[in-house]
Amino acid sequence: MRVAVLGTGIMGAPMARNLAAAGHEVTAWNRSADKAEGIERVTAAGSVAEAVRGAEAVITMLADADAVEAVVRDALPALDGALLVQTSTIGPEATARLAEQVPGLVDAPVLGTKAPAEEGKLIVLASGPEDTRERVDPLFDALGAKTLWLGKAGAGSRLKLVINTWLLALTEGLAEAIALAEALDVDPRTFLDAIDGGPMGAPYANLKGKLMMEREYPPSFPLELALKDARLALAAAEQQGLRLGALAAIAEQMERAVEAGHGKDDMAATIQASRA
Ligand SMILES: NC(=O)c1ccc[n+]([C@@H]2O[C@H](COP(=O)([O-])OP(=O)(O)OC[C@H]3O[C@@H](n4cnc5c(N)ncnc54)[C@H](OP(=O)(O)O)[C@@H]3O)[C@@H](O)[C@H]2O)c1
Q1: Of all atoms in ligand 1, which is nearest to the CA of residue 264?
Q2: Spatial separation of the C-alpha atoms in residues 67 and 30, rounded to whole Å
Q3: pLDDT digit string (tens) for 119-149?
Q4: Is 62 a pocket residue for ligand 1 (Cβ < 6 Å)?
Q5: Residue 226 pLDDT > 80, yes or no?
């Protein structure tokens, strides 16, 4: 298929590369043009319209709802019947607004971070019109290990918020356990060793725990985007009259770490808000 990828950041660049490696004809656009250049077998476009012209499917992988809405505004005149496949995490409200603008929208946020994106092992949380599945499944096969089709557009974005609520709790819990270990003169490695392989252990604890202990935060999932997801989940909960107290506290911790200059760092940097 002829595919346009709009947004070639941490996730979008490897996604574009994997689509091209699977034999699709891929054109990519990014706001900072240099990031769309030099991706193996992918043609860089100088504008959104140039990327989208002639595409059969247009994939958005951008920071947040504002970015997606702005870029889709530029893409719309050139869409010409192409499928819009929205993979960024923007929450159900913005997805509903987008679905009104773009009939046939495929709402497909993804589960998995930088490494799974590079390895083509994302999990695609797909939702949208039944009759689009056949066309987009080959694209999802190039991006991911598994595609879950969940129903009408919006279902993918709702599940994504549920999953990220769990992810944020895991990460913040880990951060606070490690910060407490450090403060109590307990080697955090003994904490990780104790839980490893048991019901409380998680591969994620070792992965993010290492970054926290080493105080090195190369971004797989930038903290500012994790905070965005906490806010999206809190807003969705509030709309349902639900109070998620722990998530509200997690958002505050993440805000503190962002204010301390860690927004572009990996979400593991949330531990900096707990350190004395
Ligand atoms: N990283 C992960 O682990 C992960 C996993 C699943 C889902 N996600 C979601 O996937 C999306 C992308 O994440 P990422 O990790 O790839 O982030 P990223 O590396 O920060 O990339 C963000 C992209 O959005 C673009 N952008 C930001 N504001 C824009 C605007 N106003 N107009 C046009 N483009 C704009 C950036 O362009 P510039 O390069 O010019 O700044 C960049 O291409 C987010 O919604 C995130 O929550 C991330």
Answers
A1: 20
A2: 11
A3: 999 999 999 999 999 999 999 999 999 999 9
A4: yes
A5: yes
